[in-house]
Amino acid sequence: MPLNILVITADDMGAEAPGCLGGPSWTTPHLDALGASGAVLGHAFVPIAVCQPSRAAMLSGRWPHRNGAMGFEPMDEHVELLTDVLREQGYLTGALGKLEHLQPQDRLAWDFTRDRADLADGRDATAYGASARTFVRSAREQGRPWFLLANSHDPHRPFHGSDEEQTFYPPEVRDAFPEPSRTCPPDDEVRLPGYLPDLPEVEREYREYLSSVRRCDDTIGALLRVLEEEGLVEDTLVVFHGDHGIALPWAKASCYRPGIHVPVVLRWPGEVEPGTRIDAWTSTLDLLPTLCEAAGARVPEGVDGHSLGPLLRGEVSTWREEVVSVFHENSGGMRLEMRGLHRPDRTYVWNAWADGTPRYRAENMWGRSWAAMVEAAEGDPAMAARTDFYLRRAPEELYDTQVDPDALDDLASSSEHADDLAACRAALLRWMEDVEDPLVEQFRAHLGTTVVGA
Fold first, then answer.
1. What is the DSSP string of 29-89?
2. Does 323-364+393-449 carry CATH code 3.40.50.2030?
3. pLDDT (tens digit per residue) in 196-234
4. If phi over 0 gives left and psi between -120 and 50 gives alpha, with beta otherwise, what is residue 87?
5. For a FRET experiment, which of 89, 202, 355, 405 has its CA 20 to 30 Å from that of 245?
6. Is Oxidoreductase included in the keywords of this UniProt record (predicted)?
7. Would you state the CATH architecture of domain 4-312?
8. Which ranges of 299-417 does DSSP label H, i.e. alpha helix?
9. Residue 175: how many other CB atoms lie within 10 Å
10. For the packed helices 29-36 and 200-229, what is the interaxial angle rounded to 10 degrees?
11. Phi-psi bin for 103: left (phi > 0), alpha (psi -120 to 50), beta?
12. CA 2 to CA 144: how far, in whole Å?
């Protein structure tokens, strides 16, 4: 019988949080243990840093404009999905949580579902474990392999212990949330990501986020215990990934690297050696063909990713030399077209919307951090410049990520980096032409009118 497949997805967890990727040692003990028994992908990226389109890209293996879900609309009916090809192989399919962001529901046609109301708004590890146990036992009774997509609602806002949590949820919902098995106390040393300013309220919110990361890890642990107790460890491929980065400025809902760099951890019995570390650049677009290979299923036509099997088995050492990020629409329906080209030493961002009139707006500006930045800007010219840039952007940005990994110094107007800028523009244009990006003509027009240093 083919391998069972468990895919665990975290909501808004960036690569800076897990211990196995250099985060605090206490945040993700279960995820770290999973990585130790399989592979940790150190440079994994999502194609788009917003929830529903990112999940649609994983389930279709296609770029958002090629599966139809560029914003919060369902995927096109003609696009074959992971569930289609697994169902051909006899798989029982199930989904836990985030069902509103798995569209179209009728096409996905899950055999088993539990949604946020069954899972304490997607934050109760015990409920995830119980639901998973019911599902895998049903598959055993039917003699079928299974695919379970378990979507944690952590560490999405509202973060654990935040004022936002108190005001967002009614008491009867909030009281049902379990405490994380560990929280981040005020006296713990916390290293803020360098793209965030060192302000007390930013640090406080980041601590709340880390506590929510730990509660997500509790859910990972509950799901993995089900495999152990049901005797399914050696029969199950497990993949964990984040859908995009943290919901703070310069990460989620952007084309910057913190928004698309996510944790991916994989355990593939019989194929991947425990303790494997992959530092090649990979994409979550690669997960669908990888899972198809593991299941012995065909790969749908039109898929943009490639199976990670050869890389995970050590048959090849290189993968991608660059990744592209896209953004189309925020959760409020505001169109904010952006493209990013990312190489180990460069990040280039084209902001198609930034003509000086619109002001950027997204969920990453909720909560403490953005408010603290705006307040600090009143007496700090450097902070004022940074917040103003965040709202308005420039048509294009260029960063030397070897010396400036947090993308603080935009070099797009620097004559010294004109060759770098030209190379990144050309590479992004090639990609847009190859995938028939709907904005390719607009980008050509931009390149025809842009003068370096103007």
1. HHHHHHHHTSEEEEEEE-SBSSHHHHHHHHHHTS-HHHHS-SSSSPPPTTS--HHHHHHHT
2. no
3. 999 999 999 999 999 999 999 999 999 999 999 999 999
4. alpha
5. 355
6. no
7. 3-Layer(aba) Sandwich (3.40)
8. 309-312, 368-377, 381-392
9. 9
10. 50
11. beta
12. 9
Residue at 421: amino acid letter:
L
Sheet holding 261-267, edge to edge: 112-114, 92-96, 146-151, 4-10, 236-242, 261-267, 39-45, 276-283
Distance CA 90, CA 147 (A): 10
> What is each CA distance from 448 to 336, 424, 437, 442, in whole angstroms?
21, 15, 18, 10
CA angle in degrees (0–180, nearest 5) for 83-88-91? 65
Domain with CATH 3.40.720.10 in the chain: 4-312
What pairs with residue 236 in β-bridges?
Answer: 4
Q: What rounded mean pLDDT belongs to the chain?
A: 95
Where in the sequence of the chain do the CATH 3.30.1120.10 domains occur? 323-364+393-449
CA distance 435 to 442: 15
The residue to which tokens 């003699």 are assigned: 143
Q: Give dist(CA 182, CA 215) in Å, integer.
A: 8
Per-residue b or e along 384-421, where b marks 16 or more CB atoms closer than 10 Å to that residue's CB: eebbeebeebebbbbbbeeeeeebeebbbbeeebeebb
pLDDT digits (tens, 9 = 90+) for 11-39: 999 999 999 999 999 999 999 999 999 99
List beta partners, residue 125: none
pLDDT digits (tens, 9 = 90+) for 319-363: 999 999 999 999 888 999 999 999 999 999 999 999 878 899 999
393: left (phi over 0), alpha (psi -120 to 50) or beta: left
CA dihedral over 81, 82, 83, 88, signed as positive or negative: positive
